[in-house]
Amino acid sequence: MCCRFQRAKPIIIDPGLYMTKKTDVFWITQRRSVPTAFKLFTGSAWMALSRPFIDYSIWGWDNLPRNALMYYSSFISSPEGYFHTVICNAKEFSNTTVNSDLHFISWDKPPKQHPHHLNLADFNRMVSSNAPFARKFPRDNPVLDKIDAELLFRVEGLFVPGGWCTGSAENGSDPCSIIGDITVLNPGHGAKRVEQLIKSLLSSENFRPKQCK
């Protein structure tokens, strides 16, 4: 997360807030100053929020969540800044942030507005990143079939098998047609990769130094 003043000064009007049909936003010629009551932060639109922080955002007992919400109502791509700004300006929560959205994303150099579509050539990098999620994928991309077959062991047309599926997967049959102990949870290779990622994110060199930067 980092400060992005160039995204904060423009003012927009989003007709989608009060119209039934989606239209483009209107850009206002005037520009506003950067707020002084709180510091702006931006980051990924994908995040996991704790229950205590959600309670704080709803009740807003010190008015920060409400003030930030009013500011971001005319902000382009507000999901990439609102919660980041609130949590990093709240003393009781700023030291709880983890600077990762658990996604593998491949950007062009220099970065463009959107990341490039992932394909088979990105498969090994996706796996080695240990990230449980990735984007973007074009429609009918063969790499999705490769992920299903080699990482999820999913047969086409069926669900991803869990540890409670005790049937045979031979000849394309559904291993979950026979259900064993539904409480069984057997961590696979993917779980081990996520474990390595979490350990890295919470390591002394990555956790505290990268909070709200």
UniProtKB/TrEMBL annotation:
Q: How does it sit in the membrane?
A: Single-pass type II membrane protein
Membrane as a keyword of this entry, yes or no, is yes
Task: Name the UniProt key words of this record, in alphabetical order.
Answer: Glycoprotein, Glycosyltransferase, Membrane, Transferase
Q: Where in the cell is it found?
A: Membrane
For whether the record's keyword set contains Transport, the answer is: no
Q: Quote the cellular component terms of the Gene Ontology held in the record.
A: membrane
Recorded superkingdom: Eukaryota
Q: Kindly provide the name given to this protein in its UniProt entry.
A: Uncharacterized protein
Organism, by scientific name, is Kalanchoe fedtschenkoi (Lavender scallops)
